[in-house]
Amino acid sequence: MTNLAPGLLERLKAAVGPKGWIAEPDAMAPYLNEYRDLYHGRAALVLRPATTAEVAAVVKICAEGGIRIVPQGGNTGLVGGGVPFEGGDEVVISLSRLNRVRAIDLQNDTITVEAGVVLAAVQAAADEHTRLFPLRIGSEGSCQIGGNLSTNAGGTAVLHYGNARELVLGLEVVLADGSVWDGLRGLRKDNTGYDLKQLFIGAEGTLGIITAAVLKLFPKPGDVQVGFVAVRDVPAAVELLGLAQAESGGRVTSFELMPRLAIDFVRRHIPDTVDPLPTRYNWHVLIELSGGRADGGLRRTLENVLGLGLEKGLIVDGVIAESEAQAAALWKLRDSVSEAQKPEGGSIKHDISVPVSRIAEFIARASTAVEAMIPGVRPLAFGHLGDGNIHFNPCQPEGADKQAFLDRWEPVSHMVHDLAVELGGSISAEHGLGRLKRDEITRYKSPLEIDLMRRIKAVLDPKGLMNPGKVI
Ligand SMILES: Cc1cc2nc3c(=O)[nH]c(=O)nc-3n(C[C@H](O)[C@H](O)[C@H](O)COP(=O)(O)OP(=O)(O)OC[C@H]3O[C@@H](n4cnc5c(N)ncnc54)[C@H](O)[C@@H]3O)c2cc1C
Q1: Nearest alpha-carbon partner for 293 in 241, 402, 371, 220
Q2: Fold observed for domain 6-94
Q3: CA of 432 to the centre of ligand 1 (A)
Q4: Can you tell me the distance from the alpha carbon of 287 to that of 224, in angstroms, rounded to the nearest whole number?
Q5: What's 223-339's CATH class?
Q6: Model confidence, pTM
Q7: What are the pLDDT digits (tens) for 127-143?
Q8: CA of 95 to the centre of ligand 1 (A)
Q9: In angstroms, what is the span from residue 74 Cα to ligand 1's centroid?
Q10: Ligand 1: residues within 6 Å at CB?
Q11: 25-40 tens-digit pLDDT
Q12: Does domain 345-432 sit in CATH 3.60.15.10?
């Protein structure tokens, strides 16, 4: 049921045709609930336009009728940005039918894709042409490029290739009044005023709807080498990163921190996983080097890095994958950490970043503080050490009441976020603000910065219809 005028709904339906809307409650459900099950929204209608012109047409009708819009990609976001509120008078605009690869320019090393192309399909299209599209995240089989750009997604190759933001040359955007900004330029140099595309990247759908993008392609690396090492402690892991970068000439693609607890969780709950080392250690790093030709040079480089790490006492044990299958098994350990937490009960999740030089201090202080707050808590700190991005997820004490533990979310988060900010960090490294951290961010950004964001929003979305109540 909806309190929107029936005439408006009929106009929206007509603009997208019979295949372009969903009003039946069961069919709408996947668009209304988010991945972590934190939010369960309602909507007047789910719209599934198939072209940029259709997106523009429905946004224009919404602008005229004052209808609030929630853009949605693969709905894998982790901060509740892509689902509507509970009121039932918003419309969801799903971009999933805008799923064409529009062009590939191999001399320019670019690919032009529509917003609804699934990330894995962009990777595959690049691969078919012996190119690499290097954005790599756990949800790549279902998230869409429009969502990736709108959240400025990170993942496990940021260290070498940058966030989603760094991989974009041009955008096409439907603005809040239904006009279409064609910024689909494939230029690596273009200093002609403000770089408008950057406003929409990371805006989580609050400034406009991304309908297409020109993305950078890279040479496919001739060789990829993956190692898994146990390190003395977290400071040793940080030192090892510097050593690996120096010895490999900057070829470290991924440098992922894994504590003992993460490996235990994965081994316990995810089938077909193995502990790569015979002895139990507290801290591990998955390290990937890539680049160059397939002549074995990179293998020697990784051996050299690990040999030096052992000599310096940074590494205590380690293996190098002997095959693609072994490399995949090592990555499976890392990629399964999020999933393996669920059967362990409640966990209070954080996605913080600090300068790499402060990571060890962050993990030590945050762990001590949360242990003092909740005796028996199991602090789980893992993730993209190479980017200074740690997922710090205290897990409930074994056998404790899940809800009672989750009721401590706010004080625990304040402690974690206060510490990250004290160390020069951010309370959201890669997931965005969405609904989850919209209020929390006002504790940390200066009033001037919040005001600047509000002023930009007011200029681009004067009626406040684009994903209202998210981000700011
Ligand atoms: C298992 C798993 C692993 C993950 N790993 C990572 C990771 O390593 N790194 C990381 O950064 N994230 C990760 N994520 C989070 C998530 O996958 C990313 O944020 C992803 O970029 C979201 O894409 P999506 O298409 O699902 O967007 P959605 O969830 O649909 O939307 C996300 C936000 O973008 C807006 N939006 C979507 N499409 C558009 C558009 N075309 N125009 C304007 N606004 C739009 C929505 O309104 C919403 O605010 C993970 C999630 C899961 C479930």
Answers
A1: 220
A2: 3.30.43
A3: 9
A4: 11
A5: alpha beta
A6: 0.96
A7: 999 999 999 999 999 99
A8: 13
A9: 7
A10: 35, 70-78, 81-82, 95, 115, 137-139, 143-144, 146-148, 150-151, 153-155, 204-205, 209-210, 338, 430-431, 434, 467, 470
A11: 999 999 999 988 889 9
A12: no
